Predict the structure.
Amino acid sequence: MHSLPSEFVHPQWNGLYLDSDHLGDIANMNMKTVEGWAVYLEFRTEGRGSSGSGFFLNMPGMQEHELILTSAQNLIDAKGNEVEDLGIFDLNQSKLEIVAQWYCPAYRRSRKPEYDYAAIKVKRTTAVTEGRGFGFTMCLGDKERLSGRVGVTGYHHRDSSYAREPTTSMGPVLTNFGKEKEFLEYGAATDEGLTGSPVWIGYDGLPIAVAIQ
């Protein structure tokens, strides 16, 4: 039982604490399912072919479309121009139909990491009958510090032999930093091509996205 006076306790609080009762070991997750939520991006930037990663976010209410999050680096080149010939492919190597795309406007002016995020809406394929994607929870955004281990799931660079095979690396959370604790440092190994991959944790037994690589 908690020791706080009743007037300081939210009526929906159930006695659980984030670290001890919600966070779980990501090694117990179904990696085949998790890696199926990552997508492969290929595009041309400054005349050269390149690639990156992204991931489905399970958004309620999207019946005809799906939402993909990624890094703004995968949509805008170093000169502030939009990339060309963008293609997005899922685990089955099916090319997804892009409906709309968006990136943080400030990233075009300043390539600071806090602006390096983007979203892409794609048409839901007939082969997908249920929602797919990483979950999210707003309460983790209010937490001063995350702990435990994270996974980084994505596709390696287009020239790699693993370019069309998603992989997951795991490592410990090292620290949160930034004015609003908006940055997350972790010990999972990363490589070229993984830009835009989800950084995720186990929360209530589910893979929950907490950052974009």
Summary: Confidence is low (pLDDT under 50) at residues 7-21.
